[in-house]
C-alpha cells in the first residue's frame, strides 16, 4: 500500500510540476510575431502588436533634430515573463544598438528612455525606435520606408468632372517631403494630367490651392501651402507650356479641413492640393 501511495504521489508531483512549467511559458498575444529585424530579448513575451500599411512616425536623429518617416509601420510591445528578471532600460537599449550595428545599421540617438536606429540594406530603408518605459518591458516602433501606393489615379477626365460638378477638385498623386515645398518627381504624372485638362479647354482658368493640417504654426502653414501651390503652378508653366495668366496659386493653410485633425488619417486627408475654377 505504501508503495502504491508513493507512486501516486510521484505522479501527482510530476503532473503539478508539468502544469506549473506550462503556465510559466506564457504565450504571445494572438496573431503577433517578431519583426524580422530584431530577435526579442530573453524571457520576454509579445503582448501587443499592430501593423499599419501606410503611416508616419517622427524619429529623433540628434539633440533637437527629428525626421518624419513614412511607410509600413509596426508597433510591437514586449513584457518580461512572470518569475523572470527584468533586464532594465540600459540593457534593452544596448542590445538593440549592438544588433543593428552588427548588420551595418546606425545608432541615430539615445537618451535614458529611448534609442533611435536606422539601417539601409538590400534596397530597403528601415527606421526603429526602442522605448523602454513599459512596466518591465519595451516597445518597438518600426517604419519600413516607402512611398504610398497611389490607389486613386489622377486623370484629366476626373478633374473635368469635378470642376463641372462642384467648381473644385482634389488632385491625387501630388507629393512633397514633410514641411517642404519642392515637388517630388513622382508627382509628374498628376501634373501632366492637369496640363492635359488645360490644353483640352483653352478658355479654362483655375486657382491652384494648397492645404495643410493643423500641425505647426498658422502663419507657417499658410506660407507652406502657398509655396506648394506655387510649385505646381511653376511645373505647369515651365514643364508643360501652360500660360501663367490662366493660373493663380493660393495657400489656405489649415483653414479649410475636410476631416478632423485629431487623427493621423484626418490630418493626411487635410494635406492636399485642389484646383478651383476661376
Count the beta strands. 10
Shape: elongated
Order of strands side by side in the largest beta sheet? 1-2-6-5-4-3
Largest sheet: 6 strands, antiparallel
In words, what does this structure look like?
With 278 residues, the protein is α+β, with helices and mostly antiparallel strands. It has six helices and ten strands; from the N terminus they run H-E-E-H-E-E-E-E-H-E-H-E-H-E-H-E. Strands 1-2-6-5-4-3 form a six-stranded antiparallel β-sheet, covered by helices on one side. It has a four-stranded mixed β-sheet with strand order 7-10-8-9. It is elongated, with a radius of gyration of 27 Å.
Notable characteristics:
278 residues; alpha+beta; 2 domains; six-stranded antiparallel sheet; four-stranded mixed sheet; elongated
